[in-house]
Fold these 2 entries.
Entry 1:
Amino acid sequence: VICRVILSAPVRLAIILILVVPDFALATYRRVSNPEQNKIGVTAHIGGFLAGIMMGLVLMRNITPLRWEKNLGW
């Protein structure tokens, strides 16, 4: 029962948001507060993000789609 709760969509979304939001906020703060020191290529990170999304769409197909997913066109 606990495993089913942990693997539910709202819990997974909450875990992802807990990890992503602070990281994104810190990266944005560092970029804005001292732009001279930042040597990270933003374009490369955006490209990596888009490539990851596209590979996820191709490789992580939904084997058993739910009714609401079919209605959305997923």
Entry 2:
Amino acid sequence: MMASATVKKHAQQCTSWDHVRTRFALSGVAIKSDWCDRVQRWQAEPQQGVIDYFSADYPECLKQLSQPPWLLFYIGRKELLNSVQIAIVGSRNATIDGRNTANWLAAKIAAQKVTITSGLATGIDTAAHQGALAAGNSIAVLGCGPDIYYPKRNRGLQQQLAQQGLVISEFVPGTGAQSDQFPRRNRIISCLATGVVVVEAKRRSGSLLTARYALDLGREVGAVPGSIWNPAVEGCHWLIQQGALLVKDVNDVLAWCNLQSDWVEQQINSVETEEKVLANWPLLANVGFEPMSVDALAEQTGLSVTDVAEQLVMLEVEGWVIAEAGGYKKVGRR
């Protein structure tokens, strides 16, 4: 629930709910007749409840906000609210590469006992939550009531988060999704996290607003780069130009939390293995990170179309390339 103008003005002077009630009453703002009933019904169910501004469970970091949420409705493991968190956000209309990157980053970070926080949107958010739950913990911050499944396609994921992780919202149960509520959600995501990683974002993406909130709050901000031909990463490149960390591996992010993964050593071994494969499989050296057709690869390597097709199948089985619309492209062996 966002505070009324009068309550916001005096928020820092309030030390108890008696103060809040008095000031809220003086503001003349009416409370909906069913509001209290909805709150009470929500609290009556197991594994869910309400954390208020003066509760010991309320994250101190949220009090930094000029408009802190007075109430946080939750379902799941509320102790995660005060865990070390990294936010991963990005485009709803993400590419396969973007989703794979978000999923991989989230899994590697979560494996180090860092909670992954995101907004449960389609695309990057979904991939980040899924990767995190496979390896550790995740928090979803909603832009609607905690009992609303939005987007509907993520109903199963939201239920999984409620069972294994945590779902929170500042909006009263029953509140539908409205466009003006998502910026309010984003400020909470930014505030809870030590840092924010943007994976795939266009220049006008809402993810950049999350990054802006993070900068204003003194949080770390990083962005994953992509192809200069890909408009889906223009926002990431802009952030990097503005001084955001260029995220090239998981340890770039873990350094914000004074942690390190064994991924670097694994990557060195992977590079050594790839060099051996390249020596014995010249076709792989000609496959790029953008899809190339079998005909184009045949022309480039001098091999027959049949030989190229057969070798690509073997490379795909070994996990070196992946088939996409337009042909084959190289992928990192993770």
